[in-house]
Amino acid sequence: MFAGGVVMIVVGFQTLIQPLLGLLLLSPALVLRPRPGRLDPELPVLREADAPALFELLHRTADAVGVRRVEAVQFTADFSVDVHHYGLRRKRCLVLGLPLWAAHPPQQRIAAVAQALGRSAPGDVRNGAVVGSALESLTAGSWTMRTGGGRAAAAPRVKTLVWYAEEVDEGSRRFHARGRRVGWLIWLLRKAMTGTARLLLRLTRPTARRALFEADDAAARTASSQATVGALCDRRLEASIGREMHRLVIEKKTLVRAQAPEGAQDDFWKSVAEHAARLREQEDLAESSEPEPSAPESPGGAPASTSHISDTLRLARLAHAPQRPPASRTNSACPSRRWSD
Question: Are 227 and 169 a contacting pair, CB within 8 Å?
């Protein structure tokens, strides 16, 4: 849009229509320009001086994976771990979900962090400065135009006995006609952005898949193959752990608030870890009694979702690969207040 707008303004400068059309293209291009990432202001941020033990573990893991070290850590309430880039120098921030950290055993935590660091390696162009920024801008622009470019409101009915009823009715029709034309223009721009984003995703699918497999290999080399498989399998516990966390929060806020124990936060994460261990044992018993199919299928015979297919392929690939021992170990039990405060 930016290049097309500049060309239309320069080439058709002597006319009036082409510069106006060029300005129409430049306006959304400037709004949707790629911006350097930034840290989420609503999440707590830790630097190396705040948690040296945690950063020592993260640095050892990054060195074992073969990627750049992280400069900051942010905590969330999601069952996930990811690496975000921020600033013009594209510094790295590890966004760590405390539920995942509490639910995983120590070696699986290293495996999850190694997988996240491996996915952020330069091999995945979707995380690069060019394609990654383009995908973020196209997705944001498409979503903005989808929410703002809805159907135009119906023209109000004007009573015939009101003064200047015909003039008001005619003005309303012209206004809504312009609104429909603008709506069509927004629809065309949104379709162009959505189509471009889908094209980028389709073209980068092989490299993203290869980067995902390489991240699994790096996690297996760092934390062991067994821990990497366990980290992938534990992703199925996300919904159950989320419900248990909500129940524990309500229980502690309503039933034991008056007692206010000093280790309330430690007890909370310990309860989450114990619940995850029970779920893991139940799944092991269920799998030993009833073998599951290789991939979940929908009623029509197609796979249920691409995420399940990806996890199934990754698990099968790790199971058939040579089993690796752990290269990095940790003895930390859970994210107690020395890290999460």
Answer: no
Query: What pLDDT digit, counting tens, does each position of 152-208 carry?
Result: 444 455 455 555 556 666 666 666 666 676 677 778 878 888 888 899 889 888 888
- Give the model's pLDDT for residue 73: 94
Interval 249-261: pLDDT, tens: 888 777 655 555 5
CA distance 169 to 171: 5
Mean pLDDT of the chain: 77
Coil, strand or helix at 195:
helix
The DSSP code sequence of 85-146 is EETTTTEEEEEEEHHHHHHS-HHHHHHHHHHHHHHTSTT-GGGSTTHHHHHHHHHHHHHHHH
pTM over 0.85: no
Residue 295 is predicted with a pLDDT of: 42
Which of 78-112 are b and which e, b meaning 16 or more Cβ less than 10 Å from the residue's Cβ? ebebbbbbbeeeebbbbbbbbbbbbbbbbbbbbbb
Residue 84 Cα to chain centre, angstroms: 10
d(CA 296, CA 101): 27
Q: What is the rounded CA–CA span in Å between residue 151 and residue 38?
A: 34
Q: Helix or strand or coil: residue 51?
A: coil
Q: What are phi and psi of 105, to 5 degrees?
A: -65, 165
Query: Do the beta carbons of residue 119 and residue 211 sit within 8 Å?
Result: yes
Evaluate the CA torsion angle 155, 156, 160, 161 in order and state its sign.
negative
Phi, psi (degrees; rounded to nearest 5) at 82: -150, 165
End-to-end CA distance of the chain: 46
Complete DSSP assignment for 260-324:
--TTHHHHHHHHHHHHHHHHHHHHHHHHHHSPPPSS-B-TTSSBS-HHHHHHHHHHHHHHHSPP-
Residues 337/264, Cβ–Cβ less than 8 Å: no
Pairing of strands 91-97, 72-76: parallel
